[in-house]
Design a protein that fits this description.
Length: about 120
């Protein structure tokens, strides 16, 4: 999904929209979503990066068309996102989850599973 991150030694700026959308959640709600969906196989939460108290979840492109994401989620289908390198540690920017690409899993989060769960999170 982000091949340049594999080779980078510092954070990269990537465009949101063509290859993926994002939804930004407070870290607490993101962790709750991961925990509440732990019984699902493959896990519906894909790759996620952490930054200053929030997680950025990667969604398939076009995931926000016609959808109102419930607060505190913030959906973006354009703009620029700074992503951490895959193999180099950064202080405030890191990968929280690498997705579930093994055994037919997913790199993207499943928006149709995540969206209705968000109002249930504290």
């Amino acid at each position: 999904m982000l091949p340049a991150a594999h080779l980078a030694s510092r954070p990269l700026n990537v465009k949101v929209g063509a290859d993926f959308d994002i939804v930004v959640l407070p870290e607490k709600q993101a962790r709750q979503a991961v925990d509440r969906l732990a019984h699902c196989r493959p896990h519906p939460i894909g790759a996620a990066m952490a930054r200053r108290g929030e997680w950025v979840l990667f969604l398939p492109p076009g995931s926000g068309l016609g959808a109102q994401w419930p607060t505190p989620a913030r959906h973006f289908d354009s703009g620029t996102l700074q992503v951490p390198p895959l193999l180099t540690a950064c202080e405030e920017l890191r990968w929280a989850r690498m997705g579930n690409t093994v055994h037919g899993g997913r790199a993207y989060t499943a928006p149709l599973v995540l969206h209705p769960l968000l109002p249930l999170l504290g």
